[in-house]
Amino acid sequence: MTTTETLTAPDELEPLGSEGPVAVKQSWEQVALALFIVVPFLAVLAAVPVLWGWGLGWHDVVIAIAMYWFTGHGVTIGFHRAFTHRSFRAKRWLKVLLAIAGSMSIEGPVIQWVADHRKHHRFTDRDGDPHSPWRYGSNLRALTKGFFHAHMGWLFDLEQTSHQKYAPDMLKDQDIVKVNASFKWLVVASMLIPPVIGGLWAWSWAGALTAFFWGSLVRVSLLHHVTFSINSVCHVTGRKPFKTKDKSGNVWWLALPSMGESWHNLHHAEPSAARHGVLRGQIDTSARLIWLFEKLKWVSHVRWPDRRALAARAREAVQPPAPAPSAA
Ligand SMILES: [Zn+2]
Ligand SMILES: [Zn+2]
Fold first, then answer.
1. 328: Cβ–Cβ under 8 A, 6 or more apart, which residues?
2. Per residue in 237-268, pLDDT tens?
3. Would residue 325 count as lying in a domain?
4. How far is the centre of ligand 2, averaged over its atoms, from the C-alpha of 115 (Å)?
5. Structural domain includes residue 327
6. Residue-number span of the structural domain to which 297 is assigned
């Protein structure tokens, strides 16, 4: 009988050879990448008490959180659950608004995002996955390298996921095509809205400047790293209450900043479900908003998780295996 371990072990996966689309980075580059991820974050945290009162005020905090929340849910509810996985159908105005909000997270144009993510589900943690931490193998060195590739390195891959192959439905939707084509203007809007609001609110250039720093730069950078962590952290660590054929895990400490996306083990177990945090106490603000939208009749055909399917996938429910009838 096949054990759970053999279903999920990444060791059997063929690491990409030198013919793979990604050139092998030098070790100094890996160190630089690590510094690039960790140092700015620590610097931001350290700056908060120093800057409070003159370089950072509650206006900036409100603007940054509002923009984070708006653009972040554009990705989680729009790009991910609505467009990639068809977890529900939104009214046209809401669909367009979600596509705009997600684009303003500056994670690439919507059609490219959807194509990449569908390919990730098609080949999760196998050859062909655009961002698996396991692509170079499972020893510590290979995994460290793979982790950074899954986090950010893959964004620099020259090979682009085919839109025709992975997102033909998106190419047929004229609303989506228009938002996709407007990406660069939405990036500009995403960068300019915080300083305009901050400047008007404080009625000063200083107010515009601090709002630009916190509401534009810090907000985008933080959301990027949280989103990237779903690809890296949630495929390396986390609890795995449901059976999947990949290494996806649930990471509780990312639940709030990722707006429910870090319940990634359930997501890979049932990708089209509109709710990822299905167990008791699992915060999933994206699912809560979809629930609200459904009550307001702004969305329909919501695919809520199927209790029976979940029970069948729950690890606890499948062990121990029943003895064969012929065994005496
Ligand atoms: Zn995944
Ligand atoms: Zn997904």
1. none
2. 889 999 898 999 999 999 999 999 999 999 99
3. no
4. 11
5. no
6. 4-17+25-318
